[in-house]
C-alpha cells in the first residue's frame, strides 16, 4: 500500500516587544534569573494583567501579511493547569475567539532529484496571542529545582496551519517561509537557539487516496529546520511501520532526540488534560477596529510576494531570480541597495545570489556579515556592465574583494584585468589574426559559421582574454563581410 | 471624638484641637481595649500607624491637607499594603508581607490617611459571617454572641465598635452591605469598575468591588472621593470622569421616584425587618420621595447564578497559591504533585475548598455549557431586569438582608442558609450596579438585644452621588447612624 503523510504545524513566534504581554517587565533574553520578574510575572496576590498594545499591533501586522480575517472582537481566556513555571496556575491565551482568523502562506518547495521545484498555498487556521511560561532550572542547586520567571509573560503569537502539508520538505519549506515572514514584518527576531521561533509538528499517515485523517502525534518544540526534517522523516516511517505491522497509532505528544534521531512519546497523556478554558474576567474583549488595521497597514513593509512581482516587472528578473532575491528582507534590501548604487538590476541579481549569498551560505553566514557591502558590489557590477572587465574577470575581482580588497578599480588595475575596448587596438589584433588564419577565413566565406567563432577565439587568445568580446565580434564581422 | 463624622474629625485636625498622632493613639488605645472582645483586626503595627500620623501632622502643619489627611482608618486585609502582612484571612498567606501597595492603599496614602491596621475577614472573602477566617471569627459589637456578617466582618465590627474612624471593605455578593446592615452603619459598593481592583486580592474578578464602610453617607462620600478613579493597571477600571461625591449630598428628594421590587418583600423576609423598612419608606415619603412598585423577575436566580460564576472565577484565581513562590508550603512532601496537594489542603479552609471544587466542576469539559455559559446568560437577564426597572424609577429600595445578625455557629453547618444572607445584595454585583446599606432602625432579638437593620439603596450605573444624597437626606432626619453599641462608648 502507498502511504501519504499529513502534516500541520503550530508555531510559537516570540514577539519583539520591549515589555511583556501583560506587564511592564523587560523581555530581554539572558538576564540573571528572576531579575525580570515583576509582581505580575511572579503572580503576587492582587496583581492584574494589562494588555501590551505593541503585542496586539504585531498580531494585526501578521494577520494583514497573510491576508487573514481579523475579527472585530477577540477574547483572552485562561488555560488552567498547575506547573511550577506557570506562576498563576493558568496561562492567559486565546481559545474560542483568536485575534487572527483564516489566512494563507505561499511556500516554495525546492527541487529534488525526483521532483522540480513547486509552489503551494498553505492554509492558516488561526493565530492567537498568549503568554509564555517561565523555566524550571534543574541542578543549579544540589537536590533542588529552581524556577526562573524572566520568560514568564513574554508575548507569543501561536500560528496554526491547516493539515495541508504532505511531506517533510513541504513542512520545512513552510516553516522557513514563516520564519522569514515574521522577521520580514519585524515582529519576531527569529532566533531559534534562544527559542524565539519554535514549532510543534502534527504528523499522521493514511493510505494514499483516502480522505480521512489518521491519528496524529505531535512532535513538540522543534527549534531547527534540520531537526524538523529528521523528526518528521523518522516519525512518518515509524507510523507507517507501526500500521503495517498491524499496530495502531495513539494520539500522543512526542519529543525528538537529535542525538539518536528518534522520536519518543512523553510520559504525560495530553488527551487526559482538561484545561477548563474560560474568558479571563480580568481582561475585556479585545477590539480591533478598521482604524487599527489601517494604522498598522501604513507601517507595513512591502511584502515578499508583492516585491517579487515588482522585481519581475520592473527589473525583468526571472521568477526564479525574483523568488531567490525576496527569500529574505535583508537579501532583498541588499539587492535594492546595489541597484540604487548604480548596479544593473539583472547583473546585480546574479551577483547577489551567485556571488554574495552563495558564498555566505557556504560559510554559514547571513547577509549582515557580508564583507562586501552593496555599494561596493555595485562598483563591480558597473565595471562589468560598462565593459571595463568581462564577467569572468569579475569573478577574480570578487574573490579579491571577499578577502578584503574593497577598491574595485584598484583590484582590476593590479590584476591587469581591464578589457581592451580601444577599437584601434582591437582592429590591429583582428588584422593579425585574419592574416595568420587565412584557411579559416576561407571556410567562413564558404558559409561555415563555426569558423567565425574560431576566429573570435583566436582574437581573444591573442588579447590574453582582455579584449572586449562584443567588440571583437563586431570588428571581425565588419572585416569579413566587407 | 470617636463618634464624630469624618468632616468633624478633619475640622478638629485642621483647627489643631487634636493632632493626628493623638487621634491615632486614641483609636489604637481603643483597639487594645476592645479588640480582644471582637477580633476585628488581624494585624496591627502601632509604629507604622503612628509614623503615618506624624507625617500627616506635618502635612496639616504645612497647610496642604486634604479632607482625609490624618484620619485613622482600618483596611480590610484583602488589600496589599507595602511592608504590611496581608493574609486575606487565610493560613495560605499567614506570613505573606506584601511588597507593594494596592491602588486603594495608594490613594489613601496620597490623601494622607493613617492605616490603623488590617481587618479580619472571611477567608479570601468567601463567607457571610466572618466565621471562615483562619484568624478566628469576629464578634458583632451589638451582641458579642452574634456574627458581624461578612466577608468584611472585621471592618464592620471596627466601624460599629468605633475602633477606627472609617474602614474599607470589598463586596463580591454583599460583603460590604450585609455587614453594614448587621452592624448598623453605612456601606457602599460602587459601580463595578469605579474603584481599581489593582492589589486587591481577587475572589471573583468580575464581581469584586471595593468600597467605603463608615458611619454615614457623608463619610462614605468623602472616602469615595479618594477611592474612585481610573487606574490603567486594572483593565476593568472604567474611565469615568472624577466626581465630587459630596456635591449632591444636600439636594432635596422632592419628586425622587423610588422603586420597590416586589421580590425583595416576598416570603423569607423577617417581619420585624419588614417593619423597619416600612418605617424608613414612610420617612422618605415625608422627604418628598414617591414610591412605585417594580419587579425584578429574575432576581430569584441570583444565588444559583452567583454560586456558579463566583466559584468558577475563584477556582482559577486561587490557583496561584501553590506553595511554589510564596505562601504556605507543606513541611514534608514526596514530589511536586504531593507538595501542591498538601500545601493547598493545609493552606485553605473548608469554605474555600468547597468553592474551588464547585468552580472546577462547573468549568470542566462537558459541564461548562450547562453551568458557566448558562449562568452568564442569566446574568445578562438579571442586568436587563434592572435596566427595565430604571425606566420606571430613579432608585431602588428594599431590605439589605432578610434578617438581623445571627448567632455565631448557627449557620456554619448549612452553607445554603448562609448563602441566602446575600439574596437581596447579589443581583447588584451580577449587574455591576452600585448598592448601599444605611442603618434604618433596630429589631429586638428573642434574647432581648437591639439588633441593627439596614435599608438597601440600589442606584443605576455611576449614580453613587445620588445614592449618597438619598442616604444623607435620611440621616439628616434620623439618628440610627449615630447609635453606638452598649459597652463601646
Question: Can you summarize this structure?
Answer:
The complex is a heterodimer of chains A (482) and B (489). Chain A is α+β, with helices and mostly antiparallel strands. Chain A contains 15 helices and 15 strands.
Distance between the termini of chain A: 72 Å
Largest sheet of chain A: 8 strands, mixed
- Pair of chains with the largest interface and how many residues each contributes: A-B, 28 and 42 residues
In terms of DSSP E residues, the strand content of chain A is 15-25%
Instruction: Report the biggest beta sheet of chain B as strand number plus sense, adding barrel if it closes.
Output: 11 strands, mixed
Strand content of chain B: 5-15%
Q: Which CATH class of chain B is shown?
A: Alpha Beta
Contiguous low-pLDDT stretches of chain B (5 residues minimum) are none
Strand order of the largest sheet of chain B: 1-3-2-4-6-5-10-11-9-7-8
Give the CA-CA distance, first to last residue of chain B.
11 Å
List unreliable stretches of 5+ residues of chain A: none
CATH homology superfamily name of chain B: Amidase signature (AS) domain
Query: Could you name the CATH topology of chain B?
Result: Amidase signature (AS) enzymes
Helicity of chain B, as a percent range: 25-40%
Strand order of the largest sheet of chain A: 5-6-9-1-10-11-12-13
Query: Total strand count of chain A, please?
Result: 15
Return the structural class of chain A. Answer: alpha+beta
Describe the structure.
The complex is a heterodimer of chains A (482) and B (489). Chain A has 482 residues and is of the alpha+beta class. Chain A has three domains: 3-292, no CATH class; 302-415, no CATH class; 423-481, Arc Repressor Mutant, subunit A, CATH 1.10.10.410. Chain A has helices spanning 53-65, 168-184, 225-244, 290-298, 304-315, 319-325, 329-340, 345-363, 374-385, 391-402, 408-415, 423-436, 438-445, 449-462, 469-481; strands at residues 3-14, 73-74, 76-80, 90-94, 103-109, 118-131, 135-141, 144-148, 155-161, 197-207, 217-222, 252-257, 262-265, 278-279, 286-287. In chain A, the strands form four sheets. An eight-stranded mixed beta sheet of chain A has the order 5-6-9-1-10-11-12-13. In chain A, strands 4-3-14 form a three-stranded antiparallel beta sheet, with no helix packed on it. In chain A, a hairpin with a 4-residue loop joins strand 12 (252-257) and strand 13 (262-265). In chain A, helix 5 (304-315) packs across helix 6 (319-325), helix 9 packs antiparallel against helix 10 and helix 10 (391-402) crosses helix 11. The longest helix of chain A is centred in the middle third of the chain and has 20 residues, at 225-244. Chain B has helices spanning 6-14, 20-38, 46-62, 103-111, 153-160, 177-183, 217-227, 271-286, 302-317, 336-347, 350-363, 369-389, 415-419, 426-431, 464-477; strands spanning 41-44, 72-76, 114-119, 166-170, 186-189, 210-214, 257-261, 290-294, 395-399, 435-444, 450-458. In chain B, strands 1-3-2-4-6-5-10-11-9-7-8 form an eleven-stranded mixed beta sheet, with helices on both faces. Chain B is globular, with a radius of gyration of 21 Å. The A-B interface holds A 39, 42-51, 78, 80, 82, 84, 87-90, 147, 274, 276-278, 281-284 and B 79-80, 86, 88, 93, 96, 98-100, 102, 197-202, 204-206, 232-236, 312-313, 316, 318-320, 322, 324-326, 336, 340, 360, 363-365, 368, 372.
Amino acid at each position: 500500500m502507498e502511504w501519504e503523510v499529513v502534516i500541520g504545524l503550530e508555531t510559537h513566534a516570540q514577539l519583539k516587544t520591549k515589555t511583556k504581554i501583560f506587564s511592564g517587565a523587560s523581555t530581554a533574553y539572558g538576564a540573571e534569573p528572576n531579575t525580570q520578574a515583576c509582581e505580575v510575572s511572579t503572580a503576587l496576590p492582587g496583581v492584574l494583567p494589562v494588555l501590551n498594545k505593541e503585542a496586539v499591533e504585531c498580531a494585526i501586522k501578521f494577520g494583514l501579511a497573510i491576508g487573514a480575517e481579523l475579527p472585530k472582537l477577540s477574547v483572552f481566556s485562561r488555560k488552567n493547569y498547575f506547573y511550577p513555571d506557570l506562576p498563576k496556575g493558568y496561562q492567559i491565551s486565546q481559545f474560542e475567539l483568536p485575534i487572527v482568523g483564516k489566512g494563507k502562506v505561499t511556500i516554495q518547495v525546492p527541487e529534488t532529484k525526483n521532483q522540480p521545484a513547486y509552489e503551494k498555498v498553505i492554509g492558516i487556521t488561526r493565530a492567537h496571542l498568549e503568554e509564555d511560561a517561565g523555566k524550571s532550572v534543574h541542578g543549579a542547586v544540589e537536590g533542588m529545582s529552581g524556577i526562573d520567571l524572566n520568560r514568564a509573560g513574554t508575548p507569543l503569537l501561536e500560528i496554526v496551519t491547516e493539515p495541508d502539508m504532505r511531506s517533510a520538505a513541504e513542512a520545512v519549506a513552510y516553516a522557513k517561509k514563516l520564519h522569514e515572514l515574521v522577521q520580514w514584518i519585524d515582529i519576531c527576531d527569529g532566533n531559534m537557539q534562544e527559542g524565539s521561533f519554535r514549532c510543534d509538528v502534527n504528523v499522521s499517515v493514511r493510505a494514499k487516496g483516502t480522505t480521512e485523517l489518521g491519528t496524529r502525534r505531535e512532535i513538540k518544540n522543534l527549534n531547527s529546520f534540520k531537526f524538523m526534517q529528521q523528526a518528521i522523516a523518522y516519525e512518518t516511517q515509524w507510523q507507517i511501520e507501526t500500521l503495517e505491522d498491524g499496530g495502531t497509532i495513539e494520539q500522543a505528544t512526542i519529543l525528538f532526540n537529535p542525538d539518536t534521531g528518534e522520536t519518543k512519546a512523553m510520559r504525560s497523556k495530553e488527551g487526559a488534560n482538561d484545561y477548563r478554558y474560560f474568558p479571563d474576567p480580568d481582561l475585556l474583549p479585545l477590539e480591533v477596529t478598521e482604524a487599527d488595521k489601517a494604522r498598522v497597514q501604513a507601517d507595513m513593509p512591502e511584502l515578499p510576494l508583492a516585491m517579487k512581482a515588482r522585481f519581475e516587472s520592473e527589473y525583468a528578473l526571472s521568477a526564479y531570480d525574483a523568488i531567490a532575491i525576496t527569500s529574505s528582507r535583508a537579501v532583498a534590501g541588499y539587492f535594492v541597495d546595489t541597484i540604487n548604487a548604480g548596479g544593473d538590476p539583472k547583473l546585480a541579481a546574479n551577483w547577489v545570489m551567485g556571488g554574495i549569498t552563495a558564498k555566505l551560505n557556504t560559510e554559514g553566514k547571513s547577509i549582515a556579515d557580508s564583507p562586501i557591502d552593496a555599494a561596493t558590489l555595485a562598483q563591480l557590477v558597473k565595471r562589468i556592465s560598462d565593459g571595463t572587465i568581462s564577467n569572468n574577470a569579475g569573478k577574480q575581482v570578487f574573490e579579491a574583494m571577499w578577502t578584503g580588497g574593497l577598491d574595485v578599480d584598484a583590484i582590476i588595475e593590479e590584476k591587469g584585468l581591464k578589457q581592451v575596448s580601444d577599437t584601434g587596438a582591437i582592429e590591429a589584433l583582428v588584422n593579425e589574426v585574419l592574416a595568420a588564419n587565412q584557411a579559416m577565413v576561407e571556410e567562413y566565406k564558404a558559409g561555415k559559421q563555426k569558423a567565425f567563432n574560431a576566429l573570435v577565439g583566436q582574437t581573444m587568445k591573442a588579447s590574453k582574454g582582455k579584449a572586449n568580446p562584443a567588440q571583437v565580434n563586431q570588428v571581425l564581422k565588419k572585416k569579413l563581410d566587407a | 471624638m470617636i463618634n464624630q463624622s469624618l468632616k468633624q474629625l478633619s475640622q478638629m485636625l485642621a483647627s489643631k484641637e487634636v493632632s493626628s498622632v493623638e487621634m491615632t493613639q486614641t483609636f489604637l488605645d481603643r483597639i487594645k481595649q476592645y479588640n480582644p472582645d471582637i477580633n476585628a483586626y488581624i494585624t496591627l503595627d502601632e509604629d507604622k500607624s503612628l509614623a503615618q500620623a506624624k507625617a500627616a501632622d506635618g502635612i496639616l502643619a504645612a497647610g496642604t491637607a486634604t479632607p482625609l489627611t490624618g484620619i485613622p482608618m482600618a483596611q480590610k486585609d484583602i488589600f496589599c499594603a507595602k511592608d504590611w502582612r496581608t493574609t486575606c484571612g487565610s493560613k495560605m498567606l499567614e506570613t505573606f508581607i506584601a511588597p507593594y501597595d494596592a491602588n486603594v492603599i495608594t490613594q489613601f496614602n496620597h490623601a494622607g490617611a493613617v492605616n490603623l491596621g488590617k481587618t479580619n475577614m472571611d477567608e479570601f472573602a468567601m463567607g457571610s459571617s466572618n466565621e471562615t477566617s483562619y484568624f478566628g471569627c469576629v464578634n458583632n459589637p451589638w451582641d458579642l454572641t452574634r456574627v458581624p456578617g461578612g466577608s468584611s466582618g472585621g471592618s464592620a465590627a471596627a466601624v460599629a465598635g468605633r475602633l477606627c474612624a472609617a474602614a474599607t471593605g470589598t463586596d463580591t455578593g454583599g460583603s460590604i452591605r450585609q455587614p453594614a446592615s448587621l452592624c448598623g452603619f453605612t456601606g457602599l459598593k460602587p459601580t463595578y469598575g469605579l474603584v481599581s481592583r489593582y492589589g486587591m486580592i481577587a475572589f471573583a474578578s468580575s464581581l469584586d468591588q471595593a468600597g467605603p464602610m463608615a458611619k454615614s453617607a457623608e463619610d462614605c462620600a468623602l472616602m469615595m472621593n479618594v477611592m474612585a478613579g481610573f487606574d490603567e493597571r486594572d483593565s476593568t477600571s472604567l474611565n469615568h470622569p472624577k466626581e465630587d461625591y459630596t456635591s449632591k449630598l444636600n439636594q432635596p428628594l422632592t419628586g425622587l421616584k423610588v422603586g420597590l421590587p416586589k421580590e425583595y418583600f416576598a416570603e423569607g423576609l423577617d417581619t420585624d425587618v419588614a417593619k423597619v423598612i416600612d418605617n424608613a419608606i414612610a420617612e422618605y415619603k415625608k422627604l418628598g420621595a414617591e414610591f412605585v412598585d417594580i419587579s425584578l423577575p429574575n432576581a430569584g436566580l441570583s444565588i444559583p447564578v452567583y454560586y456558579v460564576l463566583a466559584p468558577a472565577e475563584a477556582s482559577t484565581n486561587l490557583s496561584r497559591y501553590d506553595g511554589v513562590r510564596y505562601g504556605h508550603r507543606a513541611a514534608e512532601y514526596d514530589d511536586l504533585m504531593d507538595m501542591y496537594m498538601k500545601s493547598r489542603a493545609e493552606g485553605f479552609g473548608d469554605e474555600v475548598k468547597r468553592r474551588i471544587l464547585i468552580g472546577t466542576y462547573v468549568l470542566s469539559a462537558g459541564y461548562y455549557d450547562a453551568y458557566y455559559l448558562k449562568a452568564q446568560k442569566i446574568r445578562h437577564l438579571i442586568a436587563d431586569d434592572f435596566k427595565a426597572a430604571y425606566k420606571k424609577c430613579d432608585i431602588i429600595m428594599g431590605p439589605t438582608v432578610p434578617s438581623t445578625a445571627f448567632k455565631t455557629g448557627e449557620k456554619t453547618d448549612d452553607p445554603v442558609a448562609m448563602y441566602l444572607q446575600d439574596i437581596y445584595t447579589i443581583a447588584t454585583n451580577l449587574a455591576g450596579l452600585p448598592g448601599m446599606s444605611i442603618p434604618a432602625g433596630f429589631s429586638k432579638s428573642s434574647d432581648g438585644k437591639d439588633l441593627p437593620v439596614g435599608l438597601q439603596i440600589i442606584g443605576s450605573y455611576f449614580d453613587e452621588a445620588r445614592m449618597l444624597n438619598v442616604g444623607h437626606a435620611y440621616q439628616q432626619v434620623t439618628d440610627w447612624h449615630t447609635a453606638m453599641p452598649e459597652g463601646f462608648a
